[in-house]
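thought: fold this chain, then report.
action: predict
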Amino acid sequence: MASARPARRQPIIGFLIRRRTIWISEFLANIIIGLLLVLLMSVTVLYSLKTREVRRVDNRINTLRNENIGTGNAIESCRRELHVLTLLRRFATGRVTDATLCRVAALVCKSSGQFGYDPLLLIAVIHVESIFDPAAKGRYQSGSESGAIGLMQLRFETASEVAKQLNIPKINKGDLLKPDLNLMLGVAYLTQLIAEFRNFKLGLLAYNQGPGAVMQTLSNKEPLTLDYYKLVLKSYYDLKKLAREIDAEVAARK
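observation:
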């Protein structure tokens, strides 16, 4: 019986590290995995930096866009205000100081934008109420004061109630001589009446005659007194005509 041959020993292809044999194939695999991890980490860091940069650029673009929109809105607001002031200067025909007209123009543009009114309509109401005089005080036909004050000819009781609804601190009668406050409260009150009666005409009449008087007239099925409404409409249409003439002059100069 032949004797068994001793098993042939395979050559060791590797080297020892801390008494452990590391095969070449294992070593290369570890290097490749390490390189892949380094590459993945590098890509992750680059992506993070790129994302941060893109976000920064986007924020800057949005900021510039908002600034551009804000500038455009400011320019458009100035144009509207200048147009209204030009209109007022011609319409008032020297009855009011230019400083007052400038103030009224700015306030009208602000309030018309805030409450959604045609600025010419507000001008028409102010014209009929006070002829643009911020210090105007209404009087009855007898000559005694009616209690109506300022641009929009508000009574103190009415103004106080509207101010309370708008969360404005307690006011006094002297405050109604301030054009800013008077116009804001007047427009808010007119808006409230139009909404209450669901009709512009009735709301405007209620502003002049009082909501109670208008409701009483309607409930009695009596004809309404339309003099105030007609005066406001006349001023409004006169303003519209004058505005068209100004627009035509501006277009002709271009």
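thought: worth noting. Residues 18 and 27 are 14 Å apart (CA to CA).
final: tokens above.
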